[in-house]
Design a protein that fits this description.
386 residues; alpha/beta; Fumarate Reductase Iron-sulfur Protein, Chain B, domain 2; Rossmann fold; four-stranded parallel beta sheet; binds iron/sulfur cluster
Length: 386
């Protein structure tokens, strides 16, 4: 539900022991140090990692700090990746608490967040574009896609408007397995960024709108290709708003099933060495670690290698929690460090399962002039079933 008990939230924040492990914990068994991508890629000041953010949050909540945009700035310099939660030994979830703090302090003006939310309300996407563009990629498929049906492909704003290839490859996978699918006529944004940045009432209204549109489409199953959409529709909607959608699956969860059932039979592709980036929303948040790996391993020709930080300790791509809009340079620098980490594996491809991650990793690649190819797992799978 959307109401937050302030006393409870304060108690949660006070669980912080100020140990500082969330800054530069050393995972000796994994051979790396520094778990907070923001701390690693910024000033290194106390407020750049969770321990300092919690002290700022408490000071703002207790009125010891004036509620100004400047004083609240560090609360938004965080991807909410949850890596600190993963290692924190105290009895609370720091990343989730920070998300709630943003909600409780949402009356503090934040021009970037407010603009972003306004755009979503006005255009149904954060890119201020005509929302019908989200179906434009369908024109190149060579067949028509209905707006209603049993299986609904919920495209998402980034695939629909920035990386339409992800949508095309997803369609190719569904079609190849003999699954007819629909795409909404005017698909609203899932509202993930509204939730992450504290605009919870707007997110609730948006979730109810999405629920109604999906219900009217007659869908009994929803397929997404974006990790952010997945977490928002599958976890946030029921837990925060009591909104229940039909069974919602990531295309790679579905593809793993289809491969096991023999409905998708990947053929040999040109040999490539591939590493995988776990999107925080899909991995740490939902525990979906295996499906993308199983799909990659099922493609003959793919030599799969892992980075040092993977699964529950994977370092974030830098895009989440609204950071890509709030501090694009910091966000891209984090993407660049992830690219460097991927390069250390010797892989020539870093594949992920989220267009939003892919987009930021592409920015990171540009910054580092890396030759690493950034792509979605769906691309490799689609090419292997042609
Ligand atoms: S958030 Fe957790 S890990 Fe970080 S300083 Fe507090 S208790 Fe330690
Ligand atoms: S959620 Fe991620 S980015 Fe934010 S403080 Fe924790 S480790 Fe750093």
């Amino acid at each position: 539900m959307t109401d937050i008990d302030l006393d409870y939230l304060r108690e949660e924040l006070l669980q912080c022991r100020r140990c500082g492990i969330c800054r530069n914990a050393v995972y000796e068994d994994k051979g790396f140090d520094g778990i907070c991508p923001v701390w690693k890629n910024s000033s290194g000041f106390e407020t750049s990692f969770m321990r300092g953010k919690i002290q700022v949050a408490l000071a703002l909540l207790d009125g010891e700090l004036e509620k100004t945009p400047e004083n609240a700035e560090s609360l938004f310099q965080c991807t909410l990746c949850g890596n600190c939660t993963q290692i924190c030994a105290a009895e609370f979830n720091p990343a989730e608490s920070l998300e709630q703090v943003r909600q409780v302090l949402s009356d503090i003006p934040n021009v970037v967040r407010d603009n972003l939310v306004e755009k979503i309300i006005k255009y149904d996407n954060p890119y201020s574009e005509d929302n019908t563009e989200k179906r434009k990629w369908i024109e190149g498929l060579g067949y028509s896609v209905p707006t209603k049906g049993n299986t609904l492909y919920y495209v998402g704003c980034t695939a629909g408007m920035r990386l339409p290839d992800a949508a095309v490859y997803t369609s190719e996978i569904l079609k190849s397995a003999g699954i007819d699918f629909a795409v909404l006529d005017n698909e609203p944004c899932c509202g993930s960024v509204m939730i992450r940045t504290g605009k919870i009432e707007d997110a609730k209204t948006n979730a109810e709108k999405v629920e109604e549109i999906i219900r009217n489409s007659g869908a009994e199953r929803v397929i997404v290709s974006c990790a952010g959409c997945l977490k928002t529709l599958r976890k946030d909607y029921p837990e925060k708003f009591g909104v229940k959608l039909p069974k919602t699956l990531h295309i790679l969860e579905y593809a793993e099933e289809l491969i096991k059932e023999g409905k998708l039979r990947p053929k040999k592709i040109e040999e490539v060495q591939v590493t995988y980036h776990d999107p925080c929303h899909m991995g740490r948040e939902l525990g979906v670690y295996e499906s993308p790996r199983e799909v990659l391993k099922a493609i003959p020709g793919v030599k799969f290698v892992e980075m040092d930080t993977i699964r529950e300790t994977a370092i974030c791509c830098g895009a989440g929690g609204g950071l890509r809009s709030y501090d694009p340079d910091l966000s891209k620098n984090i993407g660049a460090s992830r690219i460097s980490e991927a390069e250390e594996t010797g892989a020539t491809i870093i594949a992920t399962a989220c267009p939003f991650c892919e987009n930021n990793l592409l920015s990171g690649k540009k910054l580092t002039n890396s030759r690493m190819e950034v792509m979605d797992v769906v691309e490799l799978l689609a090419k292997s079933i042609r």
